[in-house]
Specification:
The chain is α+β, with helices and mostly antiparallel strands. The protein has twelve helices and nine strands. It is elongated.
Length: about 425
């Protein structure tokens, strides 16, 4: 009966290992074939083959069959991921080795816990079964909580989710340890059911949490796109209003010209000059100040400076010596629009001297953007990153990543500063098109 429990645990271990390896390749690479049933049938087939070899309890044979099966899958069933066939095979091999090491650490940890509790089972098969079940829990926990985070940066996980991961691991571990107290009394079939329920319930919950992660990622992406569209729409409305003002002035321009001609003809030179000055005052707000050589950014900066003045915020542009022609217009609006809006929102809460200072410099093939603003409270920053991020900041980071840049924040003497470096190499120009 103990042998039967061991075989059952080995089967469960193979099911988990094969599914994790396929999940790894699904996350890293693109599928060659669209038929999902092909991959499902292969998952079942791989599990049966691996289980057949695993039940012989020959570690080298067990490792060899995984490497052969999944090496072939990486070559034939998947493509892309920025890797050639050899690169994909090497990645799968390395990941399998990492999983094997994690299983070994799980076995050592369980042996230590059982020795401390003085409850090492007399049956060697029962001990191996518990080690197999416990190591599977460790691998599941590490894959979903740690390993998956390495290559899937888009997954958004909160501290609460990590606490749930830990609770699930502790719950499963305690249940497996309890088996050591009842292994000598209970029916083996009941023990198999307990082990199976522990492992598969953890697997189901981890799948559910992963689904939640992906849903949060897509939701955040949708919010980012909505926020970006809002910025573009606001910029469009500004330009539309300017266009309406221009058309209103152009509608009367012939009248203004005739009026000035009459004044000059009748020798009312001073009155004609004053009239021309009034026309100039009407036209000046419609022409953005030439802060840069980029007309889109000039419009944006002019409007932000105007909005800052209305809000009682001092907005200074210290320097603008960079050429931004390598950036897409939508990225310029997203980057500078969000930067300035965030800075103005924070500065508006300051009671004494609210200000925003922007400087943009170019050197070699890099562009440096720095924006600083006053704040009314201390800002939490760790390793140059803000601890709390809104949609606007995530859009800024996405834009910076497009140009292979970097972003860092500093806080000092009631001032929050954001420093950005953008790369304007040929590769980045190609990405921005």
């Amino acid at each position: 009966m103990d042998r039967m429990i061991l075989m059952f645990c080995s089967l469960v271990s193979c099911i988990i290992t094969v599914n994790i390896l396929f999940c790894f390749m699904n996350d890293r690479y693109d599928k060659v074939y669209r038929n999902q049933w092909l991959y499902r049938i292969l998952t079942i087939g791989y599990t049966l083959v691996a289980a057949g070899v695993n039940m012989r309890m020959v570690p080298l044979a067990n490792m060899a069959v995984y490497l052969i099966l999944f090496g072939a899958a990486a070559c034939v069933l998947y493509e892309g991921g920025g890797k050639k066939k050899v690169g994909r095979v090497v990645e799968v091999f390395v990941f399998y080795i990492v999983m094997a090491v994690s299983e070994t650490l799980g076995v050592l940890l369980l042996d230590l816990l059982l020795a401390k509790a003085g409850r090492i089972p007399r049956s060697e098969e029962m001990l191996q079964s518990m080690e197999t079940a416990f190591s599977v829990l460790i691998v599941l926990f590490l894959y979903y909580a740690v390993f998956g985070r390495v290559w899937k940066k888009s997954a958004l996980r909160t501290r609460t989710q990590y606490i749930v991961y830990l609770i699930m691991l502790l719950y499963g571990s305690v249940n497996i340890l309890v088996i050591s107290f009842i292994s000598d009394q209970e029916n083996p079939f009941i023990l198999m059911m307990i082990v199976g329920c522990i492992i598969f319930s953890n697997l189901y919950l981890l799948y559910f949490i992963r689904f939640t992660d992906e849903r949060n990622a897509y939701k955040r992406k949708a919010e980012m796109m909505e926020q970006q569209e809002k910025l573009q729409y606001e910029n469009y409305e500004i330009q539309r209003e300017k266009y309406a003002d221009v058309m209103a002035i152009l509608h009367d321009v012939e009248k203004h010209i005739k009026q000035m001609e009459r004044l000059y003809q009748e020798k009312y030179t001073d009155e004609a000059a004053a009239y021309a000055g009034q026309i100039n005052d009407l036209l000046r707000p419609l022409a953005p100040f030439p802060y840069t050589g980029n007309p889109i950014l000039n419009c944006l900066l002019s409007e932000k400076k105007k909005a800052a003045g209305l809000a009682g915020i001092r907005f200074d542009i210290e320097e603008f010596s960079a050429d931004l022609r390598f950036m897409r217009p939508v990225d310029i609006t997203t980057l500078f629009g969000n930067l300035i809006d965030n800075a103005m929102a924070a500065a508006a809460r300051c009671k004494d001297d609210p200000y925003v200072i922007l400087s943009v410099r170019g050197f070699h093939e890099m562009v440096s953007v720095r924006i600083a603003n006053g704040v009314d409270r201390e800002i939490s920053i760790k390793n140059g990153e803000l601890q709390q991020k809104g949609i606007g900041i995530l859009n800024i980071e996405r834009c910076v990543n497009t140009y292979e840049g970097s972003i860092s924040y500093t806080y000092r003497h009631r001032q929050l500063a954001c420093s950005i470096l953008l790369n304007q190499t040929e590769d980045c120009r190609g990405k921005s098109i």
